[in-house]
Amino acid sequence: MRYxxxxxxxxxxxxxxxxxxxxxxxxxxxxxxxxFEGLLxxxxxxxxxxxxxxxxxxxxKSTGAEMLxxxxxxxxxxxxxxxxxxxxxxxxxxxxxxxxxxxxxQGTLQAIWEFQTIVSELFGLPLANASMYDGxxxxxxxxxxxxxxxxxxxxxxxxxxxxxxIEVTRTYLSGRGEEASxxxxxxxxDGGCDLRALTAAIDDSTAAVxxxxxxxxxxLTDLRELAQAAHDKGALLITTTSEPYALGVAESPGALGADxxxxxGQALAVPPQFGGPGVGLFACRDGRKFLQQLPGRIAxxxxxxxxxxxxxLTLATREQHIRRERATSNxxxxxxxxxxxxxxxxxxxxxxxxxxxxxACLAKATYLRGRILELDGYSAMYQAAPGFNEFAVRVRGGDxxxxxxxxxxxxxxxxxxxxRSDASQADCLLIAVTERHTRQDLDRLIAALDAV
Length: 452
Prior knowledge:
By secondary structure, the chain is an alpha/beta fold. The chain is about 35% helix and about 15% strand.
């Protein structure tokens, strides 16, 4: 929304209409104890050129954007062409704030429909919604959906799922009574899900099993056996994916037997921006039962009375539209702008371009991992694990935080210190590679790590 300030005359006119003589009188009902008088030291207003210069000075103090970064752990810095930002400004996408009136929201509805199609193809599952807020909320909503579908309350998750996704899911379930529970099973020896431990944990009260694909540690596991074990007990399999480019070289969750696949689409839409915003991806297998329990909204393709192609809001199972007890989610809308950015970026790539980016990420990560493991004092956290563009290594000296600090002084963000999410992994560094990294970038990191 553009910034449209009111003039003093307009403010006076509005106050007269509501019968107030001043702004102080307007806010007179706010108790003195709740006011910020004397606490907010706001400087005087600046003229526009001076304000822009001031903001540029502040921006120069932030050096993170200028550093060579190998940080991933759920958000990844892939190339987003300027065409994405330019196309986001087209008038077709500014027709309506929400898509409830299809006759004035065709651009918005078609964009949602295209986005759903892309998500469905990525995950290999036929039904997809208009998006969730992010990967974490999508995971929690998938857990809730599994409870509704199965009539069961207990859920199992592998610790290979992103730790933030686990915590958000646990928070969602905490408001559902004591019956709703989330059991966390240890990571497998390959850094993925522990198939044997998860299978043993499934019983007749299990609603679903949640696993990372790829895992939080960047590894990939064949999930067919786990899917069959879950289905034999009447439970569902849910996969989470925070790096969608992995699906350009790995089999889709749907092909491996997943019933619900969720993930984070940030990597395909916008650069990392201090942790957000993202866009939650959500898809599931076919069937009326699944369709009715799918959270959020769905846009559909149809024809009008003249036989012309058109788009409508087909499903919106939230509290605003149906009885509260039947609502599938209290998320009131989809992440429209970021979902649109993802649809544009993916369309610009096409299937061939998408796979080329995926292959480049895999090749560069394979090279970097091999070279780092040749250095004295560095070893793989998980030895024989197949992966994509992210991997975990044990660092020389056993202190990943110290390594990160030393490389930061050289203008390098070495990766994610796993000790931040698990104290027992304080000697491990999670390193992510994307197509943006050049051979010189990779060699610079290798040399810096060798010099620690």
